[in-house]
Design goal:
The protein is mainly alpha-helical. 69% of the residues lie in helices and 0% in strands. The radius of gyration is 20 Å and the shape is globular.
Length: 256
């Protein structure tokens, strides 16, 4: 596998999405481009930057090549208005930053940068003066929720508690109407547990034990995707399985 070609292809793909974001007019508040919905754009961008970051370590690229892709991806995720993807990429960036070459100087710079960003966020009225569209996305990302149960009910976690009879073997996936739910459970981890029960969840987790031993400290770079999938079911995304395949190939090669 020519990892350099994979890296270049991933960068080109992100550049194309960024160009489309800039040139295409959106009919909705949240950017969609040619995806079916904003969350697909956000998850695609998050998955691609995760793949690029992993490739950066395997190819031992320069610091510029490590962090330049974030300049392309941040606008894509921000304009998609996806809360899960936004906080996921922030986590990925921090983890990536600390892993490149850890030092307390970096930690101090990171803390000062975080404080500066927080200060900017508090002056949200100025954002409205710049662009009402950006202001609307800002409100979606950073303002408090109106409902206390948004995680449990809106994402579907409550069905796990309401249907304890499925905890062992699971309820199976798909056709939510049979259980009087109109939408699927919006969580990868919740779906695995609810659909396949404790037995299926354990088997799923065990399959990643090998990956964790292979990646060691780099395992934290998958934290962004994990955070996103707390409130979204991204297991059907092809890119996620491509990332897993890359890990199995690249990190196994490094160990030899």
């Amino acid at each position: 596998m020519d990892l350099k070609k994979v890296y270049n292809a991933a960068i080109i793909s992100l550049v194309i999405q960024f160009a489309l974001l800039v040139t295409l007019e959106s009919s909705s508040m949240r950017a969609v481009i040619f995806f079916n919905n904003p969350n697909q754009l956000a998850y695609f961008s998050l998955s691609m930057i995760t793949l690029v970051v992993l490739l950066s370590f395997s190819l031992r690229l320069s610091i510029f090549q490590h962090f330049f892709p974030y300049i392309i991806v941040f606008p894509l995720i921000f304009m998609s208005g996806s809360r899960g993807a936004f906080f996921a990429i922030v986590f990925l960036l921090i983890s990536h930053y600390l892993l490149v070459k850890f030092s307390w100087k970096k930690v101090i710079i990171l803390l000062f940068t975080s404080g500066f960003i927080y200060t900017l966020i508090t002056f949200r009225n100025y954002i409205f003066m710049i662009s009402p569209e950006l202001f609307n996305i800002y409100n979606r990302l950073f303002m408090k929720y109106d409902r206390d149960d948004i995680l449990l009910s809106d994402r579907g976690y409550s069905r796990i508690i309401e249907n304890s009879e499925f905890w062992i073997f699971g309820a199976g996936e798909g056709y939510s109407n049979r259980l009087n739910y109109s939408l699927e459970l919006h969580s990868l981890f919740g779906t695995i547990f609810f659909s396949y029960g404790i037995i299926g969840a354990v088997v799923f987790l065990l399959s990643f034990v090998r990956i964790s031993f292979m990646m060691k400290s780099h395992l934290i770079l998958l934290g962004g995707i994990a955070i996103y999938n707390i409130s979204h079911n991204g297991i059907r995304s092809t890119l996620v399985w491509i990332i897993i395949s890359f890990i199995l190939v690249a990190y196994k090669k490094e160990r030899k």
